[in-house]
Every structure is written in C-alpha cells, then in structure tokens.
Amino acid sequence: MSSIAHWLSDPRLHDYLAIVKGARNGFVYGVKVRFPHALIMAILFGRGDWRSRLLVIYKATKQHALNLAKFVSLYKTLLLLQRKANGGKERSADTFVAGLLGGYVVFGDRTAVNEQIVLYVVSRVIASFIPRAGAPYSKAPADISVVRPIPPDPRYFSIFAALSWGAVMWLFQNRGEAIQPGMFSSMTYLYRDSETWRDLKTLLWHNT
Known about the structure:
Layout: H1 2-8, H2 14-45, H3 50-85, H4 94-107, H5 112-127, H6 154-174, H7 181-192, H8 200-204
Helix pairs in contact: 2-3, 3-4
C-alpha cells in the first residue's frame, strides 16, 4: 500500500493521474445530472411501455456520462500536450484551443443529449457577458482557487431575462421548428395543452 501511495503522490505522475481522475469525475457527474432528468422526462413525456422507457433512460445516461468523461480527459490531455510543447508553461489561449478541439470531437455529433449539453453551455457563455453586480470585469488572479463567481447586476439581468423570454415565446409561436425538441415538448405541455380539455377531469387532474 505504501508503494501505491508513493506512486499516487509522485509529482511526475500528477498530470497523468489528473486525466484519469477527470474522466472518473466526468462520468459520475454525467450520471448524476442525466439520470434524474431522463427519468422525469420519461414519466412526463415518454412513449411506449416502461421497458422501452427504461432503455431510453439508460442510453441517455450512458451517453451523457461517457461524453463528459471523454471530454474532460481529452481536454486535460490537450492542455498537457500544449504545455509540454511550450516548455511547461500554459498560455491563456490553451484552454480555448483544448475546449475547441474537445468540443468538436466529443460533442460535434448532433444527438439529443449533445444538443442539450451544448445549449446549456452556450447559455452560460452568453450570460457571462451580463455585467456583474458590484464589481466590473477584471483579469482573473493567477491562483484560480481565489476566484469567486459574482452574480449578475440585477438591472441588467432583468433586461436579459425579459429579452430571453420574449424571444423564446416568439420562436415558439412563429418558428417552433427552431426550438430544441425537449424544450418544445415542455412548452407545448405548458402553453398549448392548457388550451384544451374535455371535462373537469382533463381540466384539473389529467392533461388529456
């Protein structure tokens, strides 16, 4: 055991073991995020018997978990290669290049799961441009451990929220084909299914 502990603490192996740990964490996080989401979607909008629904849940969870594991390990590997090519120093553009290549290889294939993940990421990227509350944008300190997220300025966030909802409702009404399928199903359930009912039961208890 002492030899294993020594091997695990060897600084020469740290970067390589970090790739393994990154793949592990990506897989676990993917399962934690996707499984409950897929389960709820299967209950609310799933079709067919429960055997087929469980298969859909399994496939979606597996793809999400494996893709995150692949991306994290590939991202860390590309960072390591760039760092080695630059004499052990990391450049500011290295993260963008690694993310760019990793995103293309892992998430470039258009599937329902990949589309949801990419839309989640792009929404966070766009939201990052909202001015922060109480502090202007500044260069991140060298020690990333001291960085703390700052919430958006409430005034700008209100405008961002209003524009987002106005845009998505216009799209739903006029260009529904452009909306991501999962969101389209949710919006149909909320806004269109609520327009029809046959009796008291379908008004208050069952959707249809």
